[in-house]
Structures are given as C-alpha cells and as structure tokens.
Specification:
Order of helices and strands: EHHEHEHHEHEH
CATH class: Alpha Beta
CATH architecture: 3-Layer(aba) Sandwich
Largest sheet: 5 strands, parallel
Helix content: 40-55%
CATH topology: Rossmann fold
CATH superfamily: SGNH hydrolase
Strand content: 5-15%
Number of strands: 5
Amino acid sequence: MPAARFTALGDSFVEGRGDAAADGSYIGWARRFARRMGVSPRETRNLGAYQATTQVVVDTQLRQALVRKSPLIGVVVGVNDLVQDYAPDRLATNLHTIFGSLAGLDTTVFTASYPDIPANLPLPEEFRGLLRQRFAHANDVLREVCAATGALHLDIAAEADWSGRGLWSADGLHPNADGHSRFAEDMADLVERASWLTAA
C-alpha cells in the first residue's frame, strides 16, 4: 500500500457522520477534500472516530499519524471535550501536543474553528450560554496554537452560513452532505492558496 499523502485526525466530524453513502458508509469532507486535491483513496488515511476527544487523538491517533507522516494532515477535534468532558487546561495542552507534534517543514497541517453548534441543540438557554463560552475560549486557544505551530486555520465560526441550519444534519452536531462538501471545498481553497503563497 502506498504511503498516505493525506491523513485526517479527529472525531465524528472527520469520520464523516451526516454524509452517508448508499452503502451506509460515510463520505465526509475528508474523502471530498482528498478527491479535490487529487489524492486517491489508497493514499488517504482517515483516523476519525465517533466521540473521540483530544485525549483520544493524543493517545491513539497521533501515534498512527506520525508513522510515515503525510505531507497533508487535517485535524478537527475538541467538540466532545467541550460538550461532554470539559477540562480547559487539558484541552489546551492536548491541542498544543497534537499540532506541535504534527508541525514540520515537509507538512501542511490544517484545522477549523469551532462553529456555534450550541445554537443547533435543544438546550436550556443558560446551558447554551455556558457552552458558547466554552466554544469561544476553545477558539481563542486554537488560534494561539495555529499561530505557534503554523497550522492553517479555516474560521468557519465567523461564517454566517455555518450559523444557520442549512449545512447541518438533523442532530445539529454533524454537517449534512452539503456541509461536508462546503467544508471540503473551502479547506481545499485555503490549502491551495497557502501553497501558492509558499511557492511564490
């Protein structure tokens, strides 16, 4: 099997939930992104897992990603930390560990901010406000991590389309097929722009 040219790490957003194929498997943004970038399925490694936290990525996925490290690496993780197992210091430490370990001159690492998922969920307003505070803090940490490690950062939290329901599946937690497609295209545009700037 050829070495992976693209590796994706993270949670069910990376796994592809919300974007099901006819056979019941997930398509997801990672497969769509790879196709757009000309990376074959045999050269794509998707480590995304349902309910994965940043700790799961540090403990299991990171080691796999560092074996024959890919030149393209996408990471989307942290929402499960924010909604289920919140420990802000651990989240920050894990994000620094993940992105710091993956950074390198021969690697383009990319990620995205945490959108307003609390707006999609049937929650008491007080708890929704608490979750939004967590998401805002996590986005501050993620921006700092990306600045320190050179990871590319797609700020979907600042995009109005991600604040509505049009790009989300019925559960409010996972993008639908349109959302995964939009994410893949926007991320590919970001990576390509960065490549052009580096080459110039």
